[in-house]
Design goal:
binds pyridoxal-5'-phosphate, seven-stranded mixed beta sheet
Length: 395
């Protein structure tokens, strides 16, 4: 039985995350606006959505943000707005959440999977270059776990190939590379505000950010049944969809945005505690590997991911002690049944690491003592796994 993240709360000593703690923290400040909106009945669009969009664009260092219904929609709308569809190829890393590749398929295009670095588990200029063909129109650079890859290298390859860059920044709110924020590198960048993200709504939500006004307008129209700015309610200039950010979610997100930097600093401090406790154990470098930090990157630790050769038995032991963990991701995208048809070659790092990845508890309200307990338990679980797997010799 997989006890991982399904451990019941009575048994849980260290949860994987705690979403209500963040909501509790912001609620006193947002309650008046939230209740006013709830009772006024203006739920779709309006000033609360515009205020959040402005705040989010400014935070990312871009000119425009368009609130949409989810990170998945943000990715698909970006592709469609860029005119990418049937017959076009889009490079995506194989080590990502399925939404990155699924958005490509839903836009009518073909995902081309790239392998990742063995050190950072992110796409590299080399793995991107390997995946580009004459039919490639774009790359989705995924800032997985909360850190940006080598952006200068990736942008240079994309520029040389003449392909568009879309950032999948669903896990990287406030992350930076070379002093620039996630969201400010691509033609568009896509954020998820799924509740467990570093900036999370109380339901599904997302945004596309861009500094190209015509792209922002197009995405806004596509996300609103094809209505362009100034059109009447029943004038539709193109076939769009319904993918809008709700006013109540926008109020929640604006409230949490005011706390995001403080929460991010806490995530960074917790990650540094994990690194301090795990970088020099008797298992480090063999049974246990830490994920490297990318030079010039400010990692915002959406997830704290380690690699373990005996991942499943260690994970089960942690669960037995009440420590919830996650696996991001157990099955690489190109090996998922609906995407296998697009897998054209082995991707050794992604395939090998999928069996080793373990995400340890990480959220702003995690305590230092809980981190210490996770690290002690991890070392004891590694010890137990090592002993139990030693060969038994006949006497
Ligand atoms: C890397 C990545 N891309 C895309 C998404 C999709 O975002 P959403 O769940 O808001 O649709 C997620 C969300 O889990 C993600 O982690």
């Amino acid at each position: 039985m997989d006890l991982g993240s399904e451990v019941t709360s009575e048994l849980t000593v260290v949860p994987f995350t705690d979403l209500s703690a963040m909501t509790h923290e912001v609620w006193p400040e947002i309650a008046p606006d939230y209740l006013a909106c709830l009772l006024d009945g203006a739920y779709i669009g309006g000033p609360a959505v515009t205020a959040f969009e402005r705040g989010w664009a400014a935070y990312c260092g871009v000119d425009h943000a368009v609130g949409v219904a989810s990170g998945t929609d943000a990715l698909q709308l970006s592709l469609t707005a860029l005119g990418i569809g049937a017959g076009d190829e889009v490079v995506v890393p194989a080590n990502t959440f399925i939404a990155t590749a699924a958005a490509v398929v839903r836009a009518g295009a073909i995902p081309r999977f790239a392998d990742v670095s063995d050190d950072t588990l992110l796409m590299t200029p080399h793995t991107l270059a390997e995946a580009i063909t004459p039919r490639t129109r774009a790359v989705m650079i995924v800032h997985l776990y909360g850190q940006l890859p080598d952006m200068a290298g990736l942008l240079a390859i994309a520029r040389r190939a003449g392909i568009a860059v879309i950032e999948d920044a669903a896990q990287a709110h406030g992350a930076e590379w070379g002093g620039r924020r996630a969201g400010s590198f691509g033609e568009t960048a896509c954020f998820s505000f799924y509740p467990a993200k570093n900036l999370g709504a109380c339901g599904d939500a997302g945004a596309v950010v861009t500094s190209r006004p015509e792209l922002a307008d197009r995405i806004r129209a596509l996300a609103n049944h094809g209505r362009s700015h100034g059109d009447s309610h029943y004038n539709h200039g193109c076939i769009g969809t319904n993918s809008r950010l709700d006013a109540l979610q926008a109020i929640m997100l604006s409230g949490k945005l005011a706390r995001l930097d403080t929460w991010t600093e806490r995530r960074i401090a917790l990650a540094s505690r994990y690194r301090g406790l795990l970088s020099d154990t008797e298992f480090t470098g063999t049974e246990l590997r830490l994920t490297d930090a990318v030079p010039l990157a400010r990692h915002v630790y959406h997830l704290f991911v380690v690699r373990l050769t005996r991942r499943d038995s260690v994970r089960a032991e942690l669960a037995r002690r009440g420590i919830q963990t996650g696996v991001h991701y157990p099955v690489p995208c190109h090996m998922q049944p609906p995407l296998r048809q697009f897998a054209d070659r082995p991707l050794p790092v992604t395939e090998q690491s999928a069996g080793e990845l373990l995400s340890l508890p990480m959220f702003p309200h995690l305590s230092d003592r809980q981190v210490d307990f996770v690290c002690e338990s991890l070392c004891e679980a590694l010890q137990a796994a090592t002993v139990s797997s030693e060969p038994v010799h006949a006497r």
